[in-house]
């Protein structure tokens, strides 16, 4: 019987002496579990402060970018370039009166915001910011912790976070809040399945679920010779596994619950969704959870598909020390803010979708495409391990994908036109608005002069006389 790789790795780490684990090279799972308590606490504090600052900057950045896209300045009064506006808005919101409606389940009502924000903070603990550096005389990785199944921790925390949204809607004793909470749970279930499937191809190529090992697996993809220089090309999975990357982009928008997938907070039909009855600091906790989730999903995408903290190829080809010391933090932050800008750009550009469109995209498009892509990647890996020629396989797969896309487009158009024709045939004749006595004309109908209108006209003539 074959034992899973993660179990073998965990058993090996458990059997390895502590000193060998701490000094193990290269940087990977063996680099964790050896830091003193004060260094672990300092890392946790730095991550907490980093996330709070990222939320403040994200709010300011979003308002400034959307303002530019809409030809208006955005916040520019509080502090230089308006940088303090987010901080002052947070202080103002936290000091407002905390209103608790009657009849709510107070215990659950108070715990729901905490349950929404805490998992978002925990998820960032497995994100690598850089390689091994020296802090206080200790060699330590720029990452709080790592696990053999670290990526699954993010999915688990996302599943836990949705409890906060559901309980907030249920405990508020409001139909709008309850509907928002139910929408949130259905949306997370639909898109978390597709998100987990988009990770499978990465696991197959990297051979691990550890974030540090996945970053290491993207370090070297090939050798290049250019103008007398020789080096290694990075094998970022955004190129090798581009369909997985595209699927993840859709699912991270659905997981974050932002426009165009902000159906749990649809103002047009639900007032504000699950946090309708919340105010003051508890409302800010939901706000905090949304932006921390956005940063966590962006950081995870950077780690899985863009080489993590490693510098892009043009820089590594010129500068050999780009991935050493503290410089990797800079490359990581640049990639992180690229994805945050993507979130903002999508919000400013696309309208909110209908709920049936949201569910159809998740269940009928993303999940089937993910399953087909996983089967294709698994077959390619198996054939490559057996030294088969992959060119006819790739060509046949490309032709099959094109045929499937054309057939699905024709089927969708035919079924849509058939439903429209059946609906037109089954449509009942419009009722006469004047039938049955009191006239009630529709808003888009011509003006009917009934008895009340005649009396109003006579009254107006008498007044003018």
UniProtKB/TrEMBL annotation:
<comment type="subunit">
    <text>NDH-1 is composed of 14 different subunits. Subunits NuoA, H, J, K, L, M, N constitute the membrane sector of the complex.</text>
</comment>
<dbReference type="GO" id="GO:0009060">
    <property type="term" value="P:aerobic respiration"/>
</dbReference>
<feature type="transmembrane region" description="Helical">
    <location>
        <begin position="234"/>
        <end position="251"/>
    </location>
</feature>
<dbReference type="InterPro" id="IPR001694">
    <property type="entry name" value="NADH_UbQ_OxRdtase_su1/FPO"/>
</dbReference>
<feature type="transmembrane region" description="Helical">
    <location>
        <begin position="358"/>
        <end position="380"/>
    </location>
</feature>
<keyword id="KW-1133">Transmembrane helix</keyword>
<dbReference type="GO" id="GO:0003954">
    <property type="term" value="F:NADH dehydrogenase activity"/>
</dbReference>
<feature type="transmembrane region" description="Helical">
    <location>
        <begin position="284"/>
        <end position="306"/>
    </location>
</feature>
<feature type="compositionally biased region" description="Basic and acidic residues">
    <location>
        <begin position="446"/>
        <end position="465"/>
    </location>
</feature>
<comment type="similarity">
    <text>Belongs to the complex I subunit 1 family.</text>
</comment>
<keyword id="KW-0472">Membrane</keyword>
<dbReference type="GO" id="GO:0016655">
    <property type="term" value="F:oxidoreductase activity, acting on NAD(P)H, quinone or similar compound as acceptor"/>
</dbReference>
<protein>
    <recommendedName>
        <fullName>NADH-quinone oxidoreductase subunit H</fullName>
        <ecNumber>7.1.1.-</ecNumber>
    </recommendedName>
</protein>
<keyword id="KW-0874">Quinone</keyword>
<feature type="region of interest" description="Disordered">
    <location>
        <begin position="421"/>
        <end position="465"/>
    </location>
</feature>
<comment type="function">
    <text>NDH-1 shuttles electrons from NADH, via FMN and iron-sulfur (Fe-S) centers, to quinones in the respiratory chain. The immediate electron acceptor for the enzyme in this species is believed to be ubiquinone. Couples the redox reaction to proton translocation (for every two electrons transferred, four hydrogen ions are translocated across the cytoplasmic membrane), and thus conserves the redox energy in a proton gradient. This subunit may bind ubiquinone.</text>
</comment>
<keyword id="KW-0830">Ubiquinone</keyword>
<dbReference type="Pfam" id="PF00146">
    <property type="entry name" value="NADHdh"/>
</dbReference>
<feature type="transmembrane region" description="Helical">
    <location>
        <begin position="188"/>
        <end position="206"/>
    </location>
</feature>
<feature type="transmembrane region" description="Helical">
    <location>
        <begin position="107"/>
        <end position="127"/>
    </location>
</feature>
<feature type="transmembrane region" description="Helical">
    <location>
        <begin position="147"/>
        <end position="168"/>
    </location>
</feature>
<dbReference type="GO" id="GO:0048038">
    <property type="term" value="F:quinone binding"/>
</dbReference>
<feature type="transmembrane region" description="Helical">
    <location>
        <begin position="392"/>
        <end position="411"/>
    </location>
</feature>
<feature type="transmembrane region" description="Helical">
    <location>
        <begin position="37"/>
        <end position="61"/>
    </location>
</feature>
<dbReference type="InterPro" id="IPR018086">
    <property type="entry name" value="NADH_UbQ_OxRdtase_su1_CS"/>
</dbReference>
<keyword id="KW-1278">Translocase</keyword>
<keyword id="KW-0812">Transmembrane</keyword>
<keyword id="KW-1003">Cell membrane</keyword>
<feature type="transmembrane region" description="Helical">
    <location>
        <begin position="326"/>
        <end position="346"/>
    </location>
</feature>
<dbReference type="GO" id="GO:0005886">
    <property type="term" value="C:plasma membrane"/>
</dbReference>
<keyword id="KW-0520">NAD</keyword>
């Amino acid at each position: 019987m074959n034992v899973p790789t993660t179990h073998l790795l965990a058993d090996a780490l458990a059997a390895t002496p502590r000193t060998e684990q701490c000094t193990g090279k290269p940087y990977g799972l063996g680099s964790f579990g050896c830091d003193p308590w004060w260094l672990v606490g300092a890392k946790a504090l730095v991550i907490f402060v980093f996330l709070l600052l990222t939320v403040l900057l994200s709010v300011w950045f979003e308002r400034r970018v959307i303002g530019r896209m809409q030809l208006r300045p955005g916040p520019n009064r509080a502090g230089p370039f308006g940088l303090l506006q987010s901080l002052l808005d947070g202080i103002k919101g936290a000091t407002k009166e905390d209103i608790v409606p009657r009849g709510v389940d107070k215990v659950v009502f108070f715990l729901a915001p905490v349950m929404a924000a805490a998992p978002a903070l925990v998820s960032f603990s497995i994100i690598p910011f850089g390689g091994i550096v020296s802090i206080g005389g200790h060699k330590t990785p720029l990452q709080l912790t790592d696990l053999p199944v670290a990526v699954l921790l993010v999915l688990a925390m996302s599943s836990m976070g949705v409890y906060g949204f559901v309980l907030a809607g249920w405990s508020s004793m409001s139909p709008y809040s309850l509907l928002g909470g139910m929408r949130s749970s259905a949306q997370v279930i639909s898109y978390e399945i597709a998100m987990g499937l988009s990770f499978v191809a990465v696991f197959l190529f990297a051979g691990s679920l550890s974030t540090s090992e996945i970053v290491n697996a993207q370090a070297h993809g090939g050798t290049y010779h250019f103008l007398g220089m020789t080096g290694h090309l990075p094998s970022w999975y955004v190129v090798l596994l581009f369909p997985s990357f595209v699927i993840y982009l859709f699912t991270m928008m659905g997981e974050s619950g932002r426009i165009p997938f902000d159906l749990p907070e649809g103002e047009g039909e639900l007032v504000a969704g699950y946090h309708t009855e919340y105010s003051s600091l508890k409302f800010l906790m939901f706000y905090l959870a949304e932006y921390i989730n956005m940063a966590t999903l962006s950081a995870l995408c950077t780690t899985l598909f863009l080489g993590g903290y490693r510098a892009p190829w043009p820089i590594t080809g010129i500068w050999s020390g780009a991935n050493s010391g503290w410089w990797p933090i800079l490359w990581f932050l640049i990639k992180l803010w690229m994805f945050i800008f993507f979130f903002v750009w999508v919000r400013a550009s696309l309208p909110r979708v209908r709920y049936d469109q949201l569910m159809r995209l998740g269940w009928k498009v993303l999940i089937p495409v993910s399953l087909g892509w996983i089967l294709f990647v698994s077959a390619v890996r198996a054939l490559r391990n057996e030294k088969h020629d992959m060119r006819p396989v790739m060509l046949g797969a490309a032709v099959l994908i094109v045929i499937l896309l054309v057939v699905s487009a024709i089927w969708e158009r035919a079924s849509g036109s058939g439903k429209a024709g059946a609906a037109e045939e089954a449509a009942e004749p419009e009722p006469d608005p004047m039938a049955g006595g009191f006239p009630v004309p529709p808003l888009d109908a011509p003006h009917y002069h009934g008895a009340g209108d005649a009396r109003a006209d006579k009254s107006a003539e008498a007044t003018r006389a």
